[in-house]
Design a protein that fits this description.
Helix 1 runs antiparallel to helix 5 (118-128), helix 4 packs antiparallel against helix 9 (240-254) and helix 7 crosses helix 11 (326-363). The chain has helices spanning 3-34, 37-44, 46-49, 61-71, 118-128, 132-157, 177-207, 209-219, 240-254, 308-321, 326-363; strands at 77-83, 91-95, 100-103, 110-114, 227-228, 260-265, 271-277, 284-290, 297-301. The chain is of the alpha+beta class. The chain has a 9-stranded antiparallel beta sheet. Strand 1 and strand 2 form a beta hairpin. 55% of the residues lie in helices and 13% in strands. The chain is built from 11 helices and 9 strands. The chain is elongated.
């Protein structure tokens, strides 16, 4: 590897790092906090996420949504979740105003309502920097830059001589502050780079169609939008509660065994129903699409028909958060996210120290 080539790589690494460092730090820290979102909620919100177990069956969505409409007659539902694995888990309804309502699954009564909590704010910072579409654009391209930085960082890490390899794999804690900081940036960056690349790539998958197309090319399969439903069965859609209840009952009857069922309204106006099933690795999920106004089923995307691109799409979220590898994966992912947050700091200190050294030389 020539000195000229490495010098060019170093300049690319430096200036891209200075341009995106703050965003990378924010995204990494919020990612670290959100990895254990489920566990944090189970601990901090246990008083209304579950109710005492009763010898009763699920009351149904009709009653729950009717009770919600009495509380919020003008607020449209944006998302709804039913946990079928735990019969005593609260049914959650979310609105455009970032409020979540928790209802008793046995009698449909309101347990609690909550405005956007700190975990939701953390997630919004992670996705959009609290700047809406502009923030989402900045965040997306900052992650792309971070991928380039990880690759250029690996090139810079690679020692020119074999005898220096061992030195490049450990931190010299007995060295000066400058040396320790340099080793923290270089050595920790090397050890975390593969997982950071996986986290960053899976993050861009959410943002860019080009990334989804690249997965299709690599897997040799095309991401399916779903199979159009030929039989247009009429659904009683006179009221929203009846519509949701009928969709829920019909879906569970046709595709039994789901551990959770969630409804969400897409930007297109479609009503999307996700049904999650027990799985070992890739998420087993049936996705059903309905007309948001009539409740008529439009198309289905069943996990039994998934090709390689569909399997990756189903696994991408779990790969991004470490859930794919269980609790061990979440712990590793959180630690790696912390390292990712540290890289812009240690990198900035390296640049700052070099700048001060050059200034001293000029003055001398």
């Amino acid at each position: 590897m020539t000195k000229g080539f490495k010098k060019t790589i170093r300049q690319i690494h430096l200036w891209l790092g200075l341009a995106s460092g703050l965003i990378v730090f924010i995204v990494s820290i919020t990612g670290f906090l959100y990895v254990f979102e489920e566990e944090i909620r189970d601990f901090s919100q246990k008083e209304y996420l579950h109710v005492p177990v009763q010898e009763k069956s699920f009351i149904g969505l009709k009653t729950i949504i009717e009770n919600y409409k009495k509380l919020e007659p003008k607020q449209k539902i944006t998302a709804l979740k039913v946990n079928r694995e735990e019969p005593n888990a609260a049914v959650q309804i979310s609105t455009k105003k970032k409020k979540t309502y928790y209802f008793n699954p046995y009698d449909g009564s309101l347990i609690n309502k909550q405005s956007s909590d700190w975990l939701n704010i953390v997630l919004e910072i992670h996705r959009t920097l609290l700047l809406g579409d502009v923030g989402e654009f900045i965040q997306g391209w900052s992650v792309v830059i971070f991928i380039i930085m990880l690759i250029t960082g690996l090139v810079l890490w690679f020692p020119n001589q074999k005898r220096l390899l061992k030195q490049s794999l450990k931190i010299k804690w007995s060295g000066s502050f400058k040396r320790v900081n340099y080793d923290l940036h270089q050595v920790l960056g090397f050890y975390a780079s593969i997982i950071l690349l996986l986290i960053a790539f899976s993050g861009t998958y959410f943002k860019f169609d080009t990334v989804k197309k690249s997965v299709s090319i690599v897997t040799g399969s095309k991401l399916r939008k779903g199979d159009e439903v030929l039989s247009k069965e009429k659904i009683d859609s006179t009221t929203i509660p009846v519509r949701y209840n009928n969709i829920y009952e019909n879906a569970n009857s046709k595709y039994p065994g789901a551990t959770s069922v969630s409804f969400s309204i897409r930007k297109t106006g479609e009503l999307r129903v996700r049904m999650t099933y027990p799985n070992d690795w890739a998420r087993n999920q049936n996705t059903l699409f309905f007309d948001g106004k009539t409740g008529q089923m439009l198309r289905t995307k069943l996990y039994k028909d998934n090709n390689a691109a569909d399997v990756y799409e189903a696994s991408n979220h779990d790969l991004h958060t470490g859930v794919f590898f269980g609790l061990t994966g979440k712990i590793i992912w959180s630690l790696v996210s912390l390292i990712g947050a540290s890289l812009p700091i240690t990198g900035f200190i390296i640049w700052w120290k070099k700048g001060k050294k050059k200034t001293k030389k000029i003055k001398a």
